[in-house]
Amino acid sequence: MPILEIDNMTKVYEGKVTHRAINQLSFTVEEGEFLAIMGPSGSGKTTLLNMISTVDEPTSGTILMKGVDPHQLPENELAYFRRRELGFVFQNFNLLQTLTVEENIVLPLTLDNQSVDEMEKRLTMITERLSLTQILHKRPNEISGGQAQRTAIGRALIHRPSLILADEPTGNLDSNTSKDVLELLMQVNQEQKTTIVMVTHDPIAASYCDRVLFIKDGEFFNEIHKDDRRQMFFQRILNVLSLLGGGQVGDLSTIRLP
Amino acid sequence: MTFRQFAYRNVIRNGRIYAAFFMASCFSVSVFFIYSMLMFHPDLGKGILGDVSIVGMAGAEVILVLFTLFFLFYSMSAFLAARSREFGILLHLGMERRQLNRLIFRETMLIGVTSIIIGMIFGFSFSKFFFMIVREMLQLDSLPLYLAWQPFLLTLGVFFSAFMMISYVSVSFSKEHKVLDLLRGVDQVEAVTPYSKARGIKGFVYIILAYLLAMLAPHVNFLVTLIVFIPILVTFGTYYFFSDTILLILAIIRKQRKLNWKRYRLLAIAEQTHIMKNNAKMFFVVTMVSTLAFLSVGVLAAMSSYTTQYNLVNPMGLIYKGDANNPYEKEHINSLLNQLEERGLSYHLTRFDVVKQTSTATNRQVEVLRESDINRLLYSNNYPIVSLAKGEGMFIPNTEEDLKILKNKRVETVLQENDIPITIDRVYPRVIFPKAIISVNAIIISDEDFEKLWYITSNPHIKQPVYHLFTFDINRWVETKDIRLEPDPYEGVFNEEAPYYLENAGLNYSYIVATYSLFTLVGLLVATVFLLASGSFIYFKLHAALERNQQQFEVLQRMGLSDYEMKKLVNRYLFPQFFVPWGLALLHCTFVFAALQVFLKDLINISIAKEVILAFSFLVLIQVVYFYLIRWRYLSHMRP
């Protein structure tokens, strides 16, 4: 059953220079899927993610999440929808500097007015899984990048959302920490059947996913599915990327006749 | 583009950011200018403002300048901190520090000079209006507008040097930071919040101790020690309160998950910790200034209540009191009558004989007045007439307070010397004489009984066994202030040896009005400055934290914070900043006035509670308006 259905979505930024960021894009995400969205800079990845996270509205086309169009919801309902159904992981972590690690993690629950017992229960579960128990009382600027991103993942997971949106989660991390974070996301996806949509530049990060969707200039370009072996999958991603980035190559491929 | 053009364009194109700072500067300049206009007013030397001393006003101006300096410096540094990224980029592009300093200096001077000019124009155009208010308030005949070079020169000199100083000092700001820090922004959150538990407790204890002392002050004799001691305690207590006590309380709350993990509280408390830690000094200054402003407004209100009640307490214009053997009596009364006639003041003269007797009921002296004497006075004053039968007596209340006590009192007594039995069972329903004239124990008896007072008291403790009272009931009593006794060999009203005494309500009133006007002017000044400052401080501080807060709210909105919830959260961010310093200042003042109320009641018997509460509610109202205004600006910055 698809958890996210995007149909013919178009986003046009009006202004002095009209800019079409997304052009008639359609795709679906199945429940429990780990999807990566790749594309060169300016291809509309972040715009797409903003629209899925409902902070931005499409000019035309529809988004259905669990059969509901969040953009049709009244403002307060929309906020509640975001708070309960979505989790976010950002490139620069976006932890609140004034809060400690544990406070950052429980933040979504406090906003939703949960009981302290419940919060503590979930906090222990999550922190043990993410091995954050040692640093619970530290501030975000006292911990390493990997720890910060794990904290952010904790914050995205604690309210058990149906969809996690990750925007370049490894963009600020070194290769080893990146690997840890990606494996963690993969584990979460497999064990809890949490659906994850991740926007990334990094082919290695994309290779951890079930499926990779490529977009270029706001349009659908290609999509490939996971292999048995991650190495092979990585290779195929690179191939598509070379097509995608090559400009000329891409143009040629579209006019090739059978 | 030359360097000068660059600085100029920076200011012009950053207009919106500069606007707040510019307006604040303009406002300080014009307030200062208006006061200088008053201070240099040519009529002031002629004593048109009563006895308002120029020294008092000059003192107020000095305080104003010092505070403005602090305020401008604070605004400037908050403002530079908000622009740190811009400076970072300039340094990154290869600008020398020296050049950057020159840039900041030029920009500040540009704003400074412009705001001095605009402020003076603005101030001058409003000084007529201000003079009108002052004239109305001090009941002067006229206070004309004038044009002189002194106020302009003073304002220019003071503020030019102030801006020079601020530019130099704020230039040193950029030296402390590295380019990278500037690029990141200055408002970084530090890892740990340092505070000292001991000082936190000290702050709390000092304030409580000061309050206790203030409550005790009117009841003990070492008043002077307390007047010195309490402000010191309060000052230190307030400082520790903001630097440590609040942080201590917040830290304790943060440790209690049950208390802390509640909806908006988690974020609000964390934010407050950050705000308090970074702005303890500012909050301290705001609190102390607010306390001063509140005090002056409160004193003002009290004074105005005193002046309006003055006529009630002193219904007579002039009262002359003399011993039976006073050799100057005739001469004095004649001179008083002449002086009154010279001034064309109509009067109604009543003469009293007051006899002192010993009462058997209390074994103390009692002053006895005759019924027909007092009735003549009462008649001319349109007060109710007294009618007493033989053997009846009536109390004369000294104060409103007495009136309540004596109302239901009944005394059976005998005037010992002449063996006349009197039953005193009522009190005259109004205060007739001011306090200094007749003693606490004064009664009216019927003419019949009064005739029988043959024997004068032989009690050696009683001075002036018989004295004469001359009361002048004057309608235009305010105009009697220069009436003097001639000749006056004992010089002055407070000479115990003198066989005579003159109570001049008009003169007393003129002293009060003069003090009142001084307080009015100083109080107005302080209140204006405080209005300017307390809101603006917070505004500039918010400006510095804007970027971090914007980022924070963006994250929260993504996480699903509705607009309504955001407003709630912003309320919780802003509310303590506005109302904790204010609340503490109000609390300080409440205790001062509570003490003062008790003290004043003993002294002049007026109640200031009503006026003070009224003035304070007005101030609170203004602060609430300020709060909503700034919240509105803040929200408009925070919304995407």
Automatic annotation (TrEMBL), chain A:
Cellular compartments per GO CC: membrane protein complex
Presence of keyword Iron: no
GO molecular function terms listed in the Swiss-Prot or TrEMBL record: ATP binding; ATP hydrolysis activity; transmembrane transporter activity
Pfam families hit by this protein: ABC_tran
SMART domains hit by this protein: AAA
Top-level taxon in the UniProt lineage: Bacteria
Matches recorded under CDD domains: ABC_MJ0796_LolCDE_FtsE
Location of the ABC transporter domain: 4-242
Keywords: ATP-binding, Nucleotide-binding, Transport
Family recorded in the similarity comment: Belongs to the ABC transporter superfamily.
Protein name, UniProt field: ABC transporter ATP-binding protein
Source species of the chain: Lysinibacillus alkalisoli
From TrEMBL, chain B:
UniProt KW keywords: Cell membrane, Membrane, Transmembrane, Transmembrane helix, Transport
Membrane-crossing residue ranges in chain numbering: 21-42, 62-82, 103-126, 146-169, 203-220, 226-253, 282-306, 516-540, 578-600, 612-630
Compartment annotation: Cell membrane
Similarity-based family: Belongs to the ABC-4 integral membrane protein family.
Annotated source species: Lysinibacillus alkalisoli
Segments forming domain ABC3 transporter permease C-terminal: 62-172
InterPro entries, sorted: ABC-4_Integral_Memb_Prot, ABC3_permease_C, ABC_permease_BceB-typ
Listed GO CC annotations: plasma membrane
Main localization (coarse): membrane
A GO biological process held by the record: transmembrane transport
Tree of life domain: Bacteria
Name of the protein in question: ABC transporter permease
Membrane topology label: Multi-pass membrane protein
